[in-house]
Amino acid sequence: MGVVGWRHRHRRCLCLAVLHLFVGPTGFRWRALYGDARYPEGYEIHGIDISHYQEEIEWDKLRHAMIEGCPLRFIIIKSTEGSSIVDSCFDDYFYEAREHGFIRGAYHFWSNKSTPREQANFFLAKVTLEKGDLPPVLDIEVKPKDRSVEDFQRDVLTWLHIVEDRYHVKPIIYTYHKFKEAYLSAPVFDDYPYWIAHYYVDKVEYKGKWKFWRHTDVGRLPGIKGYVDFNIYNGSYYDLKKLTIGSEEE
Q1: pTM
Q2: How far is CA 230 from CA 2, 38, 44, 196, 212, in A?
């Protein structure tokens, strides 16, 4: 075998080895391809988050869904993105979630292409939360490269303060644990309920306080075709109800 042939074969073997490591049945990040969902132990309050990617949902089937022997309690739904996008399934999902007895919530997906004030006002114009709904949620996962951490934090706080002024509750912040540690670690953010995304682990590595944990993106439930994100709430069902809008009035 010539030098060129040997190099080609060596490169091919290396690529196959890497592919098997990350995409094979025991691969870490790409376990989703094989449907290997993980279920944290010690939590009884389960929920999901959905968007138009779930397409048509059979709500009568979903209403009776169970996760690890526990009923599905809450559903958080994508509502808006940036200052111009409304999720195509939001209105339908938001209505059906309440009609079928779930505690519901709505999340806004942060965009670096519009100002925080524009995004907050757009969210408030398109989403009407009611008594018994979860506080509004800000899903933020990317910091602009041209903004300092301090300026970025001020932008996030602008959105949070505008939305908080409307509903008089602290919005929930959704992000990855490493993102929060890197960009949202200022003490002021610890006053907000935290929804952490951390997949394929048995326990959360984040050391701070948190309310929700999205622990897998490969959940399966009756009534939903394909995969769906599974979440748990870090507390009792009573605690979850106390978190909802208007609970302090009861």
Answers
A1: 0.85
A2: 52, 9, 13, 12, 10
Q: Are strands 70-81 and 66-67 parallel, antiparallel or unpaired?
A: antiparallel
> What's the angle, vertex CA 169, arms to CA 164 and CA 170, rounded to 5?
75
| Terminal-to-terminal C-alpha distance of the chain | 80
Spatial CB neighbours of 110, under 8 Å, sequence gap ≥ 6? 82, 119, 138, 139, 140, 141, 142, 156, 159
Residues of the chain with confidence (pLDDT) below 50: 3-4, 6-35
DSSP state letters, 46-99: EEEEE-GGG-S--HHHHTT-EETTEEEEEEEEEEEETTTEE-TTHHHHHHHHHH
Catalytic positions:
49, 141
| Tokens at 109, concatenated | 């997906």
Structure tokens at 77: 């739904």
Q: What is the pLDDT of residue 249?
A: 66
Instruction: Tell me the CA distances in angstroms from 199 to 36, 176, 202, 213, 219, one per residue in order.
Output: 11, 10, 9, 9, 11
Question: For residue 7, what are the contacts with CB-CB under 8 A and spacing of at least 6?
Answer: none
Q: Are 81 and 108 in contact (CB under 8 A)?
A: yes
Whether the CB-CB separation of 108 and 123 falls below 8 Å is answered with yes
- Residue ranges of alpha helices (H) inside 147-244 are 149-167, 177-183, 237-243
